Amino acid sequence: MARKKKVSLEMINPHAAGIDVGSRSHYVAIGQGKDDVRQFGVYAEDLQALAKWLLDNGITTTAMESTGTYWQNLYSTLQEAGLQVILVNGKFTKNIHGKKTDVKDCQWIQKLHSIGLLTGSFLPDAATEQLRTYCRHRSHLIDMAADATRKMQQYLRLLNLRLDVVVKDVTGETGLSIIEAVCKGESDAAALASHRHYNCRKSKEEIAKALQSNERQDYLFALQQELELYKLVRGKIAACDRAIELLLKEQIECDSAKRELNAEAKPYKRVNKNAPKNMDLNQLAYQYFDGVDLMAIEGVSHSTVIMLMSEVGNAGLKKFSCAKQFACWLRLAPNNKISGGKVLSNRIPKGSNRLKIALRNAANSIGNLKDTHLSNFFRRVLYRRGRAAAVSATARKLAVIIWNMVVKGISYQPPTNYEFLDQKRKRKVQEMKKLITKFNLTTDDLGLQTSPL
Fold first, then answer.
1. CB environment 93-114: b (16+ within 10 A), e (fewer)
2. What pLDDT digit, counting tens, does each position of 130-145 carry?
3. Topology (CATH) of 16-114
4. Cα(79)–Cα(157) distance, rounded to whole angstroms?
5. What separation in angstroms does the CA of 241 have from each of 136, 141, 274, 336?
6. Residue range 142-161: mean pLDDT, rounded
7. Does 453 score more than 60 pLDDT?
8. Domain boundaries in the chain?
9. CATH for 127-249?
């Protein structure tokens, strides 16, 4: 009879541990035996005891799953103890056979880590992590403000005040002035229409027709509550903006070379109502990225830049060895599956993060531009594959451009330069002046009539 051959894998990390992270306890394995597994709590003293037990057993590296937010305190405690910690995506540790238990999970993680089959996830530096906390909290506040706005629109309709028909944004200057007057007890339509801002397209008479209230007190009370909540949340957003600006300036002030950088003004870039206010984000981003002008890219807005700064950061972009790796991490690159020389699938992997969503929004806005390098690329893909594929392809192209600009320190130089409306007008006027001078044309030759003084 033929003898069975045993294949043993090479031990890459002989002093490795695996941790199954939980909400109330952590299971730690330093080997595959029964005595090599211990359970620890989640309090600070339990985490310190866990780190001491690993060090006493000669462990130098450990791996854990990124389970919710339960891993963060344990991760920082193990790093402070001098251990190498690898945070692993849970999908790479799920192929365990048999009955699933916490003990088997931590032993399976330890086994995979010891033979070098686990890779760490991307984690930003401490400064970027702080900025990310502020920006994510700000996004949550914006969602709360949007929810309060929807509720105000609902109660206005129930009061028969169709402000949403005559005003584009009920939380604009005209809309908020009218809502405040309604909450103070004003019910006369003409008096409410007098709060119209001069930029409003509708006339006072048309606004007055839409503000015939039924004066239901229950709806009025709910509207007052939602208005107070909206104002409170907007105040919290303003405070969050000040904290973000202070943190960015602290990071920039530490470097004398960054302080001397001055960005070119971009008045043509629209500032969204939800963008951070009272700060020159164009200048701050230019200094933050060491003189790289990301706002020069068409379609890239203030929200795109602040999302890049908070989710990855300047130092985080340099952790990716190439632009392709950065695009793959964003899940914007096709996941090609080839077997027998035949491509079985080339779909983009499922999943998303905030930076991917921001890049896709920028790509969608690029699709509405004309005569630019990126918009022409967008339309070529749109013609062949549809808009969804064009958005993904352009978002990937944006990610590659941003990585090359930040890591290699190069400026944005598209093959065809995009000119805004004022730039086009100026260039055309100069061309016309040159032609008039060249051919000695007069007003009679051009057929122009000058009005008498």
1. beeeeeeeebbbbbbbbbbbbb
2. 999 999 999 999 999 9
3. Nucleotidyltransferase; domain 5 (3.30.420)
4. 56
5. 12, 11, 11, 42
6. 94
7. no
8. 16-114, 127-249, 290-408
9. 1.10.287
